[in-house]
C-alpha cells in the first residue's frame, strides 16, 4: 500500500516540473471582471487600476504595463468620443492564452480607424491621434463589435511564460 504524500504548493509544483523536464508554466484559470465607469476623465485611472489589480491577483504573465496603457486609451476614447448618455463598462477577461479587455459605450459608431491601416502619420505636434495606433501596434489583436446598447471596443495581449529561475 502506498503512503500519502502532501500536495506541493504552486511554487513547488513549478520547481518539481522543472526538475522532471515537464512544462515550466501552467496558465492560470480563466477569470472575469466587469465594472461600470462614469463617462468622465476620472474613469481612466480607475480602469488602469482594475486591469493592474486583475493581472496581479491571478499572477498572470501578460505585460501589465501594456495592458494598462491600452486600457487607458480605450477608456479615454470612450469618454471623449462616444455619443450618448450613461456609463461606460470595462470588461477584463484573463484567459490561459492571454488577456482580453473590452470597453463598452453607448455609441454604435465604429471607433475611427482601429482595424484599418493609417495612410498618414499623426501630426507630431498634436496631443491627440495616437491612441488607436498604439492599440493596433501593441496588441496581438483588436477590434470592435456592436452590442445591444452601443458598441464594444477590445484588444488582446498574449501571455509570456515566466522565466524559470533556479532556486
Low-pLDDT stretches: 1-22
Q: What is the strand arrangement across the widest sheet? A: 1-2-3-5-4
Query: How many strand segments?
Result: 5
Task: Using the CA coordinates, give the radius of gyration.
Answer: 20 Å
Roughly how many Å apart are the termini? 33 Å
Average residue-wise pLDDT: 78
SS field, number of helical segments: 4
Strand content: 15-25%
Helix/strand/pairing category: alpha+beta
Q: Which overall shape is indicated by the principal axes computed on the Cα atoms?
A: globular
Helix content: 25-40%
Report the sheet with the most strands, covering strand number, pairing sense and barrel closure: 5 strands, antiparallel
Order of helices and strands: HEHHEEHEE
Outline the secondary-structure elements.
Layout: H1 10-20, E1 31-37, H2 43-57, H3 64-81, E2 88-95, E3 98-105, H4 131-138, E4 141-147, E5 150-158
Antiparallel strand pairs: 1-2, 2-3, 3-5, 4-5
Helix pairs in contact: 2-3, 3-4
Feature tags:
about 170 residues; alpha+beta; five-stranded antiparallel beta sheet; 4 helices; disordered N terminus
How would you characterize this protein structure?
The protein is α+β, with helices and mostly antiparallel strands and 167 residues long. The chain has helices at 10-20, 43-57, 64-81, 131-138; strands spanning 31-37, 88-95, 98-105, 141-147, 150-158. α2 (43-57) runs antiparallel to α3 (64-81) and α3 runs antiparallel to α4. It is globular. The two termini are 33 Å apart. Mean pLDDT is 78; it is low at 1-22.
Amino acid at each position: 500500500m502506498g503512503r500519502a504524500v502532501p500536495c506541493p504548493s504552486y511554487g513547488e509544483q513549478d520547481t518539481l516540473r522543472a526538475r522532471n523536464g515537464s512544462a515550466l508554466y501552467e496558465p492560470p484559470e480563466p477569470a472575469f471582471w466587469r465594472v461600470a465607469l462614469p463617462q468622465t476623465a476620472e474613469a481612466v485611472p480607475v480602469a488602469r487600476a482594475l486591469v493592474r489589480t486583475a493581472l496581479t491577483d491571478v499572477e498572470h504573465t501578460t505585460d501589465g504595463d501594456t495592458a494598462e496603457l491600452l486600457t487607458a486609451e480605450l477608456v479615454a476614447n470612450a469618454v471623449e468620443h462616444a455619443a450618448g448618455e450613461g456609463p461606460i463598462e470595462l470588461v477584463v477577461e484573463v484567459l490561459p492564452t492571454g488577456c482580453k479587455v473590452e470597453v463598452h459605450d453607448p455609441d454604435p459608431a465604429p471607433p475611427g480607424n482601429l482595424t484599418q491601416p493609417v495612410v498618414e502619420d499623426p501630426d507630431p505636434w498634436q496631443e491627440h491621434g495616437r491612441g488607436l495606433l498604439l492599440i493596433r501596434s501593441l496588441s496581438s489583436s483588436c477590434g470592435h463589435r456592436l452590442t445591444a446598447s452601443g458598441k464594444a471596443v477590445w484588444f488582446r495581449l498574449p501571455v509570456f511564460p515566466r522565466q524559470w529561475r533556479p532556486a
